[in-house]
Amino acid sequence: MERVRTVLAAADEWSPMVQTINLALFLAEAALYFSLMTALLHFRHRIGLGVFLTALGVMHFVETYLAAVFYVSLPFGVVSPGSSVFFTGKLMMILMLYIKEDASTVRQPIYGLFLGNLVTVAVAQVVLLHQPVEMAPRQFADMGFLQDMGLLMIWGTALLYLDALGIILLYERLGRTWLRRTVVRFALSGMLVLTFDQIGFYALLNYLYDAPASVFWGGLKAKMFSVTLYAAFFMLYQSMFRDHNITHSRRPIGDVFSDLTFRERYEDLLSRTGRDMLTGLYDRSRMEIEAPRLIRESLRIGTPVSLAIVDVDHFKSVNDRFGHLHGDEVLKAIADGMAGQLREGDHIFRYGGEEFVVLMPEASHGDALGLAGHLCRTMAATIRNMAGEPVTISIGVATAPHDGGSFNSLLALADERLYKAKDAGRNCVVGIV
Q1: CA dist 425 → 204, 309, 313, 358, 420 (Å)
Q2: In the chain, which residues have pLDDT < 50?
Q3: Alpha carbon distance 318, 392 (integer Å)
Q4: In whole angstroms, what separates CA 370 from the centre of its chain?
Q5: Tell me, what CATH number does 406's domain have?
Q6: What CA–CA distances, in Å, run from 372 to 233, 347, 376, 397?
Q7: Rounded distance, CA 384 to CA 228, Å?
Q8: Which of 50, 58, 118, 265 is the 20 to 30 A CA-CA neighbour of 357?
Q9: Closest CA to 410 of 308, 321, 317
Q10: CB of 166 closer than 8 Å to CB of 63
Q11: Digit-coded pLDDT (tens) for 176-225
Q12: 307 and 227: one domain?
């Protein structure tokens, strides 16, 4: 660090060099903050969530102090690392905690920061009543700064509370359009909320210190830059650990945490019910709940959704020749094989007996036919009965909105096409004819 300070001092009159060094430090700070905090969050089940929450909380005073007095020159303006790197990082970490846990967990740091900062401000007002003494010549307590810091902390705490609620609600709202695009929702939520935050925080800085407009624009650009960095880091983290804990909701803002927590616990309970005991897939009762909802949602946002009925060819002969226990093994192999070939976001249900239903959101009829054909070829190539003979499947496909706008209409039409596939010799797919 001493060497960096020396370089900066020597480069005072060469602004581009200073800005380049500052930008490099800015990037290093963001990378260090994200790496450390994400590591604490990732290993929360081993070391305890309290470690992450404590690390998140102790940074707040430093963030506020730096945002008030410490600014550097970057290529896109004059900014404070406290606001642009650490405060932005904290807000994105709160969103990451929500994504990985639930609202009942994320409200702990939000309420803790809010109440803790109010107590800090109250204590600071009592401290101001003291008559301090000099510890060394010309070393005075900055009473004016303590007074301003109190106002900054109150204002910053209020903004943080609104920011934290807002970023969660925006992430949820964007899930209606981009349910599976977690990184896009992560970035857009951060950008929108931090724009609001920058407007609010600059208003107070301008009031207290007559901060110039360049501070606002530089800070806004720096926060957008930081969000982009954190979104890239988040995408890298997601790709490395394949953590797809994605949620969405339409709960109103009133008592938002109770509503969101109820939603998450309901979905957790639902995910453990409605399972077929043999294959582990969702069963028919679960299909009758989920499929109509998914179809309605796809039609609401204007995207196609396809439904396929899959039937195992000559399955009765498998039971008759080799017994029902081997028939069960074949069904489990078929279920596992199909589930492994589906796209992320597709849903497979056991309809009954040797029949399965596959629901494919955002799949056109052509896409669905292609996927169904791939399933047919894969099952024929990989699944064998006890005699070593291939086990094949037949599939009928229907697509909304072209083939209808309800679950029952798609199911009926796909069923008709399934029988046409059987009449055509089996081991094939029939769609629109």
Answers
A1: 76, 16, 10, 21, 9
A2: 1-14, 243-255
A3: 12
A4: 29
A5: 3.30.70.270
A6: 36, 13, 6, 8
A7: 50
A8: 265
A9: 308
A10: no
A11: 777 678 889 999 999 999 999 889 888 877 887 787 887 788 888 989 99
A12: no
pLDDT of residue 50: 85
Read off the amino acid at residue 338: M
Of the candidates 227, 259, 291, which is a domain's last residue? 259
Same domain, 224 and 292: no
Nearby residues of 243 by Cβ (< 8 Å), 6 or more positions away: 100, 237
Instruction: Report which residue type is found at 167.
Output: I
For strand 429-430 and strand 393-400, is the pairing parallel, antiparallel, or unpaired? Answer: parallel
**CA 379 to CA 290: how far, in whole Å?**
26
Same structural domain for residues 173 and 322?
no
In angstroms, the Cα distances linking 122 to 112, 126, 127, 179 are 15, 7, 9, 43
Conformational region of residue 93, where left means phi above 0, alpha means psi within -120 to 50, and beta covers everything else? alpha
pLDDT for residue 216: 84
Residues 300 and 377 both lie in one domain: yes
Phi, psi of 173 (to 5 degrees): -60, -45
DSSP string covering 335-370, please? HHHHHHHSPTT-EEEEEETTEEEEEEET--HHHHHH
Q: What angle do CA 74, 78, 84 make, to 5 degrees?
A: 85
Asked if residue 395 and residue 250 are part of one domain, the reply reads: no
Tokens for 258, please give them: 């109770």
Domains in the chain, number: 2
User: Is the domain of 33 the same as that of 154?
Assistant: yes
Tokens linked to 107: 């409200």
Q: Is residue 270 part of a domain?
A: no
Q: Is residue 274 part of a domain?
A: no
**Cis bond before residue 212 (omega within 30° of 0):** no
What tokens appear for 241 in the block?
């650990």
Report the amino acid identity of residue 96.
Answer: M
Beta bridge partners of 358: 308, 348
Domain span holding position 187:
2-259
- How far separated are the first and last CA of the chain, in Å rounded? 72
Q: Write the pLDDT tens digit of every residue in 228-276.
A: 999 999 999 888 875 444 444 434 444 455 555 555 555 555 555 678 8
